[in-house]
Design brief:
The structure holds three protein chains of three kinds.
Chain A lengths: L3 E7 L5 H10 L4 E5 L2 E7 L1 E5 H8 L12 E5 L1 E4 L3 E5 L3
Antiparallel strand pairs in A: 1-3, 1-5, 2-3, 4-7, 6-7
Helix pairs in contact in A: 1-2
Chain B lengths: L10 H9 L11 H4 L24 H24 L12 H28 L3 H29 L8 H5 L6 H11 L3 H20 L1 H9 L3 H31 L3 H19 L1 H10 L7 H20 L10 H7 L3 H11 L13 H10 L4 H17 L23 E2 L2 E5 L2 E5 L2 E5 L2 H9 L1 H4 L5 H7 L7 H7 L15 H15 L1
Antiparallel strand pairs in B: 1-2, 3-4
Helix pairs in contact in B: 3-5, 3-10, 4-5, 4-7, 4-8, 5-10, 8-10, 8-11, 8-13, 9-10, 11-18, 12-15
Chain C lengths: L23 E7 L9 E5 L5 H13 L14 E4 L2 E3 L16 E6 L12
Parallel strand pairs in C: 1-5
Antiparallel strand pairs in C: 1-2, 3-4, 3-5
The chains are: A alpha+beta, B mainly alpha, C alpha+beta.
Chain lengths: 90, 505, 119
Amino acid sequence: MSRKVSITLQNNDDARPIIEAIEKDNPDSTVNIYPAMVKIDCEGRLIVKQETVEALLGREWDVQELHLSIVSMAGNVDEEDEYFELSWNL
Amino acid sequence: MAEKRKKKLGIKQRYSMLTRGLSWETTYQDMDKVFPYDKFEGIHIHDWEAWEDPFRLTMDAYWKFQSEKEKKLYAVIDSFAQNNGHLGITDARYVNAIKLFLTGISPAEYQAARGFTHVGRQFRGVGPRVACQMQAIDELRHAQTQIHSMSHYNKYFDGLHSGPYMHDRVWYLSVPKSFFDDARTAGPFEFLTSISFAFEYVLTNLLFVPFMSGAAFNGDMATVTFGFSAQSDEARHMTLGLAVIKFMLEQDERNIPIVQRWMDKWFWRGTRLLTLVAMMMDYMLPKRVMSWREAWDIYFTEAGGALFKDLERYGIRPPKYADIATKEAEHLSHQAWHIFYNYTHAAAFHTWVPEKEELDWLSEKYPNTFDKYYRPRLEYLDKEEKAGRRFYNDTLPMLCQVCQIPMGYTEMDDPTTISFQSSEYKGDKYHTCSLGCKDIFDYEPEKYVQAWLPVHQIYQGNCGGPEIEDVLKWYNFNLGADNLDYSGSPDQKLWNEWQAHRKKA
Amino acid sequence: MPVTSIGKYEFEPLDKVENFHGNQLTYINWEKHLLFCAPVCLPLPPEMLFSTFIKETMPGVYGKHPDFEKINWDEVTWTLDQVDFIPDMAASLKENGLGHKSLLRFWTPGLNGIEGSHS
């Protein structure tokens, strides 16, 4: 059975670098585009890395800024200063 | 970014400093007297400090992010109102979904605020208290921002003038109202299981996410913006829901069967409540994003499946009757729409028979059921309406004692036969729409014999008078404007005038 | 355990028969005719004759359906509270065994609803 974790973000200017960073750091992820939002699924685990988002944004980015763009998610959350990770216990 | 300014404390330390050590063991009063509600449900907690908020959000960060969300939201609401945003929606029929939302869901947000305020006082552990207090503020914000956003529609469209008043009286609004009443009158752990876990973790995705995306697709800027602003909080609430479940399960194995029973109950109550949303998605969005069936497959079968797989190691199984709910996803929206079509003369929003292309869409999305069971009926209703005999059901319906929805659900192995369940308690009969609702009644009959069933209340003479017109006035409806078919409504007339002007221009 | 509560928890049921002004609630369902979305609920006097119920109550409830006037009431089959039941037309609802909140279901053989769709 599939054990996908997922994160849904708004499809706006704040979220676009985050979406791009997720695609970069999770090459196996699938990006589904719906009106106004983007749902990214990934088998088992998905990570948002501060470093990657900052490189794309060109400024400091606090991982908790994710709160401004997130719409929904599925998976256990692990949040640290440097990353935000979703996972299922395999 | 080597020169980046280092924060003094890491996120874990900050969270710990700002949430721990805020409480103390009381000495001149017994702790059980100070926190009288967190034991009677039978949940055993040995170490409240083991509570961990995965988001590690502290109050200072909370205010910072929330104020930023509010600024963004109110900029959009202002702009929507200033620029006559209502003219940009796809069709005025869409506004009927907003009417149902404002009268059915927004007052429930306020109920959630009351519930979380209560449990935010009642847990003896400080971690869950802080999380619940934040959520109480969130829920209040949701009620307020929804009312603000939708108030613009109230300037032009009918049925939006007294949401909270209607919520306490109108027959179909007793469905969400009784859901939250049931949750709020339970103990604090059951409340969190019902709202934070079953509703927000398992089912909110189905409620808000596809619907908000649908609102965007239909040009409703106001709803999309408040929806996503609320949803950014929901992501945190969902996490709280999962955290509380794991906390209970890890603390004591005696908690497992209690948590399982709550999951079964609240999953079922949630799916019943979502009937309203199923019909909003399949019938009330002029431009459709995905069908209810598809949303169910993505968000319940796939996401929920992975979640329950994860909880297996605690001895938790998927909710009872999840298989029935999945079969019902083929029928739910059609049966719900038909109930409201039958009784639109007593509702504060309009219904209609979908146009031909819309029927074709439903046929395509529901190849196994729609043409066989539902399309002939809708085509007949359309013919009758066009011949000047718009069908209304003149007799009040039988309601389920638990979910309070008219008994329009059918047996899944025989979709043209209504599902009937019943129980006896202290010499009286009680009827339920499903095994799920019957189980809930049978476990706590003393609670549900007090259900304020609108139909029975009308017959007892407690709702304004004996005639349907008296009742509708008591509901504070504007008769002939708020109710009846969309065809011939003042909403339709106004919308058609706007469209004619647009063509001229 | 009839409820999980912090103390004694007993309340009057809200729908006791005494609250209905001499009537009792009856639930009625015409099977395979889902044009009517759900069973209906009516407060009826227990002394009402079953024949009066058929002649005077039923048309107001179901008369709008094109199958209604085709019903041959002699062929109708019934259940009362989920048990097969043959009503005595000359007796009252109460004498026929209908109590408060009884469920009366009936089947009309040969009539299959709009376009045979059981609507």
